[in-house]
């Protein structure tokens, strides 16, 4: 775990992530400027840092209603503005980028932040960027696998010899600068399907698992499949960190949390995915056994601890800003995380 | 209430004739309903390549978005090679998972032979159920002999279509009311 900068004695890490969505507030119909949105993301990372939150990450989506296409640039600003919090991408679409450039960027962010940067590489759930950046969606899988492999190789080896289908070969190439410790944590982003988790396990790569909604027990199956694949291929599952990511929101009562967040999630999904979030599913999300961490601080703490018991994961990150949630609400959340959620999680998960 | 009629093939006239009659019946009986017809013969639709329906452009984007905005969809389709036409299946493939959640879907089938009667039951309904449609269980099955020069000549068929229209609207109204009442209970 050391390689991935995870200190098990400190218990479950708690983080926040944003997709960098840039949506109108459904309650007012108004949308802030991209400039304001980007500044609010940077400020949110600062507040998270001050509240003692472990991790903050920003994603890239290249289409309407998003503002952090250049997520590594935003992360560089966050690196400069913060001092302790780990920072990462959630995720970097490695398929449509040059792994050499991505590594150069994130190694630089690691140096700016003095050893706090990580990469989470994903395949993209919104695929607008394939057209925009000149890639063929038919190569969706192979682009990811090949480029992800190269990214991992660059991380492991200072001098790289490599050849593949989608990029010019590298001969005795040195990819610089190197991160502070010579290498940095690189994770594979995994959606709901066990198939992708199995690939991550087979390669012995840490897994970031998206868990938006549904029973925790069904995500447990994906985690088990990941660990079994790692074991089968000669890796020690206990040495491979797992992180989960999903909706998060706390307010005084669970009902208030649901009321405050439902319109944002529903309308946000309607605009970005073309389907809203069914109320019935959202209502079920309040159940302790569901992965959606929306509720009163006490309810959410119980859920996170339940998930930790079930998954045995090392990090949980929450998405609370989706769909144009106003900044004051996010500040409230950080306050409640810092004073209630975080101390409880650490208290119950840290190794004494 | 937005009702979309979807005529599912690029070939022949029976389905379109039946759909014209159907939508005319909707307009006469329910003047407040917003009715539109998509006849796939009039559009140039690409094959599904797996992207989100929001990302298709031109005719493909127009058709998928129109269907996704509908409250009720009346599908009219012929039977080709003992199955639904590829043009209609492609529409389903273009749409997302659970695309018909909270939508009512009803069907009318035209066929050259009564031997095809169960094809909608065994091949079309399972697709609609998988896509989470509220299905009007009874469909109208119309044969070649019920048509003459682009007119329906069998009164029994006309009556059955009128009942299909009524069932579609009644189920949509009822289902919407039930869902709204249920959602109001959630209090968020």
Automatic annotation (TrEMBL), chain A:
- Where does the record place the Luciferase-like domain? 13-313
Q: Which residues form a coiled coil?
A: none
Q: Name one GO molecular function term.
A: monooxygenase activity
- One GO cellular component term, please give it: cytosol
Pfam families linked to this entry: Bac_luciferase
- List the SUPFAM superfamilies hit by this protein, alphabetically: Bacterial luciferase-like
Instruction: Give UniProt keywords alphabetically.
Output: Monooxygenase, Oxidoreductase
Question: Which top-rank group of organisms is this from?
Answer: Bacteria
What PANTHER family does the entry give?
A: BLR5498 PROTEIN (PTHR30137:SF8), LUCIFERASE-LIKE MONOOXYGENASE (PTHR30137)
Recorded protein name is: Methylenetetrahydromethanopterin reductase
Q: Name the species this protein comes from.
A: Filibacter tadaridae
TrEMBL record, chain B:
| One Pfam family matching this protein | FMN_red
Q: Which residues form the NADPH-dependent FMN reductase-like domain?
A: 1-143
Known EC number(s)?
1.5.1.45
From the Swiss-Prot or TrEMBL record, what is one GO molecular function term?
Answer: oxidoreductase activity
Q: Which Gene3D superfamilies match?
A: 3.40.50.360
Q: Which InterPro entries does this one have? A: Flavoprotein-like_sf, FMN_Rdtase-like_dom, NAD(P)H-dep_FMN_reductase
Listed A to Z, the keywords are: Flavoprotein, FMN, Oxidoreductase
Q: What is this protein called?
A: NAD(P)H-dependent FAD/FMN reductase
Supply the source organism for this entry: Filibacter tadaridae
């Amino acid at each position: 775990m050391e390689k991935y900068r995870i200190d098990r004695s400190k218990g479950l890490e708690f983080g926040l992530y944003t997709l960098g969505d840039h949506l109108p507030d459904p309650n007012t119909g108004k949308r802030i400027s991209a400039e304001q949105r980007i500044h609010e993301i940077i400020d949110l990372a600062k507040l998270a840092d001050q509240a003692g939150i472990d991790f903050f990450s920003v994603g890239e989506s290249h289409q309407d209603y998003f503002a952090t296409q250049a997520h590594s640039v935003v992360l560089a600003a966050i690196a400069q503005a913060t001092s302790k919090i780990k920072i990462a991408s959630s995720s970097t679409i490695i398929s449509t980028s040059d792994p050499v450039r991505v590594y150069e960027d994130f190694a630089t962010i690691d140096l700016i932040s003095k050893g706090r940067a990580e990469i989470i590489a994903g395949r993209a759930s919104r695929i607008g960027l394939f057209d925009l950046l000149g890639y063929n969606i038919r190569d969706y899988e192979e682009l990811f696998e090949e480029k992800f492999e190269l990214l991992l190789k660059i991380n492991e080896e200072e001098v790289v010899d490599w050849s593949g289908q989608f990029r010019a070969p590298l001969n005795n190439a040195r990819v610089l600068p190197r991160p502070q410790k010579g290498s940095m944590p690189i994770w594979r982003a995994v959606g709901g399907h066990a198939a992708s988790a199995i690939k991550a396990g087979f390669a012995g790569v840490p897994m970031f698992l998206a868990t938006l909604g549904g029973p925790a027990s069904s995500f447990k199956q994906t985690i088990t499949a990941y660990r079994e694949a790692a074991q089968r291929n000669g890796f020690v599952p206990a040495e491979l960190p797992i992180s989960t990511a999903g909706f998060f929101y706390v307010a005084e009562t669970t009902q208030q949390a649901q009321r405050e967040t439902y319109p944002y999630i529903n309308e946000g999904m309607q605009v970005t995915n073309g389907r809203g979030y069914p109320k019935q599913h959202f209502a079920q999300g309040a159940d302790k056994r569901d992965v959606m961490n929306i509720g009163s601080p006490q309810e959410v703490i119980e859920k996170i601890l339940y998930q930790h018991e079930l998954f045995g994961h090392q990090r949980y990150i929450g998405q609370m800003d989706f769909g144009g949630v106003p900044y004051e609400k996010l500040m409230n959340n950080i306050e409640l995380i810092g004073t209630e959620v975080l101390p409880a999680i650490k208290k119950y998960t840290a190794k004494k | 209430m937005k009702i979309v009629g979807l005529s599912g093939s690029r070939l022949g006239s029976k389905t379109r004739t039946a759909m014209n009659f159907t939508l005319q019946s909707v307009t006469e009986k329910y003047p407040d309903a917003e009715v539109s017809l998509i006849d796939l013969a009039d559009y140039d639709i690409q094959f599904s390549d797996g992207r989100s329906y929001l990302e298709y452009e031109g005719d493909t984007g127009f058709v998928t978005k129109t269907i996704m905005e509908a409250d009720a969809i009346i599908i009219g389709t012929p039977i080709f090679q003992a199955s639904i036409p590829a043009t209609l299946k492609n529409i389903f493939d273009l749409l997302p998972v659970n695309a018909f959640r909270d939508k009512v879907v009803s069907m009318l089938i035209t066929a050259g032979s009564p031997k095809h009667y169960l094809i909608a039951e065994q091949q079309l309904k399972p697709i609609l159920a998988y896509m989470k449609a509220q299905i009007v269980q009874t469909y109208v099955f119309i044969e070649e002999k019920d048509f003459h020069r682009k007119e329906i000549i069998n009164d029994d068929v006309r009556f059955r279509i009128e009942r299909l229209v009524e069932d579609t609207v009644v189920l949509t109204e009822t289902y919407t009311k039930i869902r709204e009442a249920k959602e109001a209970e959630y209090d968020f």
